[in-house]
Design a protein that fits this description.
Elements (H helix, E strand, L loop, with lengths): L2 H10 L14 E3 L3 H6 L15 H23 L5 E2 L3 E4 L5 E4 L3 E2 L3 E6 L15 H10 L4 E8 L3 E6 L4 H21 L6
Parallel strand pairs: 1-4, 6-7
Antiparallel strand pairs: 2-5, 3-4, 5-6, 7-8
């Protein structure tokens, strides 16, 4: 048995809830909006299942382990928090963005990350901003933070400052993406 094969197999395995995560035209995840902006997620590859390479698997598993440990700590300490709460932000009659932050508290929301490269600037990396803006739109009455894990175990919170311009850019981006998807797939792909 090779450990790498086990880890790779775990991350790339079909999940029992795979049907609920199946791609649908008009339904996007907040975590993929930056990928659409950057051109990694395109209308042409939207329905393709991409296998994660070994380095990506390790990074994903590190983040999962940190999140799971923090969930155990919050549970043991009886902290009033809901992990992985799912909400939808409606863009129009045809499009929703699904937001599923890591930890939702009565007065704030934390989206955790375990960046493998991070500057010392104490600024939120640009690659997280679109997801955090979507989170703010889903929870407008709460402060939104990115929680940056580090080793030894720590979580540094950096408050996200909402941006009306960024939200308008997201709306424009996803509406354009949706139109292109509908041109490629006039009848929703099953």
């Amino acid at each position: 048995m090779k450990i790498d094969d086990v880890l790779h197999g775990f991350v790339n395995a079909k999940r029992p809830d795979a049907e609920s995560h199946k791609r649908k035209i008009g339904r996007l995840w907040s975590s993929e909006i930056q990928g659409i902006k950057a051109g990694y997620v395109t209308p042409q590859n939207f329905f393709e299942e991409k296998e994660k390479n070994m380095n990506s698997c390790r990074m994903i598993l590190t983040g999962i382990a940190m999140e799971d440990m923090l969930t155990k700590i919050f549970t043991a300490q009886k902290v009033d928090v809901v992990p992985q709460e799912k909400k939808e932000v409606r863009i129009n009659d045809e499009i929703v963005i699904v937001v599923k932050p890591d930890f939702v508290f009565p007065n704030m929301v934390i989206e955790t990350k375990f960046p493998f490269s991070m500057s010392e600037s104490k600024k939120i990396p640009e690659r997280y901003l679109y997801q955090l803006e979507c989170t703010h739109q889903a929870y407008p009455d709460r402060k939104v933070y990115v929680g940056l894990f580090s080793v030894p175990f720590n979580l540094e919170l950096i408050e996200y400052v909402p941006s009306h311009r960024r939200w308008k850019n997201i709306e424009t981006l996803v509406v354009g993406f949706h139109k292109e998807l509908k041109k490629l797939y006039p009848v929703e792909k099953e």
